[in-house]
Amino acid sequence: xxxxxxxxxxxxxxxxxxxxxxxxxxxxxxxxxxxxxxxxxxxxxxxxxxxxxxxxxxxxxxxxxxxxxxxxxxxxxxxxxxxxxxxxxxxxxxxxxxxxxxxxxxxxxxxxxxxxxxxxxxxxxxxxxxxxxxxxxxxxxxxxxxxxxxxxxxxxxxxxxxxxxxxxxxxxxxxxxxxxxxxxxxxxxxxxxxxxxxxxxxxxxxxxxxxxxxxxxxxxxxx
Length: 223
Known about the structure:
This protein has 223 residues and is of the alpha/beta class. The chain contains nine helices and five strands. The protein has three domains: 10-50, no CATH class; 55-161, Nucleotidyltransferase, domain 5 (2-Layer Sandwich); 172-222. It has helices at 10-22, 36-53, 88-99, 117-125, 138-144, 148-161, 172-203, 207-211, 216-222, and strands at 55-62, 66-72, 78-85, 103-109, 130-132. The chain has a five-stranded mixed sheet. The radius of gyration is 34 Å and the shape is elongated.
């Protein structure tokens, strides 16, 4: 027996039980409520549109044999992390993986002048905005932990916040001058080392040989 105001027919009770078990929406008099399937279809369509229009910022933690990359949306939400080989094929896969999440607007790369030089050249060739990201300070690393995905996410967040600098291109006249300077410094250090070795050999040589190298300019003339 039901009290006043609590009487329910068997049909309404059956509909309520079906609604609870199958999670569908029931149309009530005077209202037109879309079904759950309609909401699901709309949600799938909205997700597809968002993936095409949302801006993506990437962050890369560079290494010698592989790079770890993270993707963030426009408000800093993490979309995923992945690792790719440091080869032309790996650069292409990394680029495609980032573009799969939306419109790629910027990539923050650690070490654009060292391990990240190849990736930086590849992204710039495809007209992607690349920024040099500094490594996080030790206090931040101690709080958040040290791992490649964490560093990649930190690089992406720094790029999204604008805490970046101009990347090193490693090409053109600047790269040519850098190669010449490296060769010059290497040759200069070898000359100094050779002079020191010859001078110490003269110190231990017999007297008749040492007398011929008393003047420093003679030692310089040999190297």
